[in-house]
Every structure is written in structure tokens, then in C-alpha cells.
TrEMBL record:
Organism domain of life: Bacteria
Keywords: Antibiotic resistance, Cell membrane, Membrane, Transmembrane, Transmembrane helix, Transport
Coiled coil: none
Cellular location(s): Cell membrane; Membrane
Residue ranges crossing the lipid bilayer per the database entry: 41-66, 78-98, 135-153, 159-182, 194-212, 247-265
Family of the protein in this entry: Belongs to the ABC-2 integral membrane protein family.
Membrane topology value: Multi-pass membrane protein
PANTHER family: NODULATION PROTEIN J (PTHR43229:SF2)
InterPro entries for this protein: ABC2_TM, ABC2_TM_bact-type, ABC_2_transport, Nod_factor_ABC_transporter
Name by which UniProt lists this protein: Transport permease protein
Any Pfam family hit: ABC2_membrane
Main subcellular location of this protein, as a coarse class: membrane
Species whose genome carries this gene: Microbacterium deminutum
Length: 275
């Protein structure tokens, strides 16, 4: 019996307990979907309705007073069409961040879930990718629902708006990767408050509700360093049809976020449970 167990374990985890990858992140996603059945759907839906309420109050209400707004590419659009793609990016960010921070924090420090996962054939990269993929599902659901509302309201101004869906998946992937990496270093609920402390100013100042040109030039450079600004500009360009080479910079920014987040999360899980 012992020999069989040792043989099986060796076959499952090649390279010893330090193996990073078993090729099965889907098991983590499946576990998350099963656990979601017992979740409060009111909490889940709240992340979707928040940007919808912003669009109704700001885009329709305030928009009737503002009129048209000029985008960074010089295109004149209605105020509602200006903030709707920004809120779409925010919706994807919120969905991904919620699952990759608070949920991961509980599983990591209280549920001890990852410790159990890593005692199986799963490696830390499987766990990291699985949790991030599950967070992507939430972000995609939020974004798809909001995209339908935009289409009904006539706020998708070009056929390229359909490309906004893969764009928001990329945005959610970037935020989920970095969110999980940061959360793996958190030890108390008080430390988790720093996440909201960062997200709120980023939401307000990332050219979501008004053009970046309202700021002094040195502030504009700070804003352009924020990840949400890149997501907002990418989605806004796609929904308005104002395509530009700068979109590749936004895409590269999120690819870098994904790579950095995955590396740090994998190393952190390995250090916590395998070393």
C-alpha cells in the first residue's frame, strides 16, 4: 500500500512537492462554482448594479446639462456615451477584485483552503490560475450585463464595441492577478481596507467621469500610470470606434499586470505552503 501511494504521488507531482504546475486549474474553478450556489446573490448582483446606477444618475441626469464631451482622440460624443465605457471597465474591475481579494483573503487565512488544495496534486500555479479564472467569470458576467444595457441605450457607437468584451476580460485578468498577489501578503482585515483606499481614487480620477485634460499636465502623467485609466481608454476607443495605435500600449500594460501578478502569487503560495 505504501509503495503504491508513493508511486502515485510521484506520478502526480513530478519534481517533488515544489512542482508549480499540474495542469488542472479547472478543478479550482469548478470548486468555486459549486461553492457559489450557496452564496448570497444579492451581494453578487450589487457589483453589477453599482455602475448601472452611476450611468443612470450621471450619464442621463448630469448628461442633460453637460451635453457633448470630447474624448482623448478628439471625437465628440454625448456625456452618457463618454462615461458608459468607463463604467464598463469599472464593472469588470469590481467583479475581478472582489473575488481575487476578499474571497481569497478568507480562503487563505481562515478557511485554510489553499493549504488543502496544495496537499493534492495541484501546484501553486494551478491554484493561482484557477482562482483568477473564477474571478474572470464574475467580471465577465458584470461586463456582459452592462454591455447589453449600453446596447439598448444606444451607447455603443461602432461595430468595434463587440471587441470591448474580450477587452474587459483582459482588464479583469490584470486586476485579478495583481489583486490576488497583493492579498497573499495581507494578514488582517484592517489591511484589506487599503484595497478600497486605492480603488476609490482610481475610479474617480481615471478619466471615468470627465476627460483627463481637465488636470494639470503633471497630474495627467500620474493618472496615465494608473491601471484603470488604460482600461477606460481601451474600452472607450472600442465602443466609440476611435481606434488608435495607443491601444496596443494599453493591452501591453495589462499583459504586464497579468505576468507580474501570476509570478508573485505563485511564489507566495509556494513560500507559504510548500517551502
Amino acid at each position: 500500500m505504501t509503495a503504491v501511494a508513493q508511486t502515485t504521488d510521484a506520478g502526480i507531482r513530478r519534481g517533488g512537492v515544489r512542482a508549480l504546475w499540474a495542469g488542472n486549474p479547472g478543478a479550482v474553478v469548478q470548486r468555486g462554482l459549486i461553492a457559489a450556489r450557496s452564496s448570497s446573490w444579492a451581494v453578487v448582483l450589487s457589483g453589477f448594479f453599482e455602475p448601472v446606477f452611476y450611468l443612470a444618475s450621471m450619464g442621463i441626469g448630469l448628461g442633460s446639462l453637460i451635453g457633448s464631451v470630447q474624448t482623448s482622440t478628439g471625437l465628440e460624443v454625448s456625456y452618457a456615451a463618454f462615461i458608459a465605457p468607463a463604467l464598463l471597465a469599472v464593472s469588470a474591475m469590481n467583479g475581478a477584485i472582489y473575488d481575487s481579494t476578499w474571497n481569497v483573503f478568507f480562503k487563505l487565512n481562515y478557511g485554510k483552503l489553499y493549504e488543502g488544495m496544495l496537499s493534492t496534486s495541484l501546484g501553486p500555479l494551478d491554484v493561482a490560475l484557477g482562482e483568477i479564472m473564477y474571478a474572470l467569470l464574475r467580471g465577465l458576467v458584470y461586463a456582459t450585463g452592462f454591455m447589453i444595457i449600453m446596447q439598448i441605450a444606444g451607447l455603443n457607437l461602432a461595430w468595434t464595441a463587440i471587441l470591448a468584451l474580450p477587452a474587459v476580460v483582459l482588464i479583469a485578468f490584470g486586476f485579478a492577478s495583481v489583486g490576488m498577489a497583493v492579498t497573499s501578503y495581507m494578514k488582517t482585515f484592517q489591511q484589506m481596507d487599503w484595497i478600497n483606499f486605492v480603488l476609490l481614487p482610481m475610479f474617480l480620477f481615471s478619466s471615468t467621469l470627465y476627460p483627463i485634460t481637465v488636470y494639470p499636465e503633471f497630474i495627467q502623467w500620474i493618472v496615465m500610470a494608473l491601471p484603470l485609466w488604460h482600461g477606460v481608454e481601451l474600452v472607450r476607443g472600442l465602443t466609440t470606434g476611435a481606434l488608435s495605435p495607443a491601444m496596443w500600449v494599453h493591452i501591453a500594460y495589462y499583459l504586464a499586470m497579468i505576468a507580474i501578478g501570476l509570478v508573485f502569487t505563485t511564489k507566495r503560495l509556494r513560500a507559504l505552503f510548500l517551502d
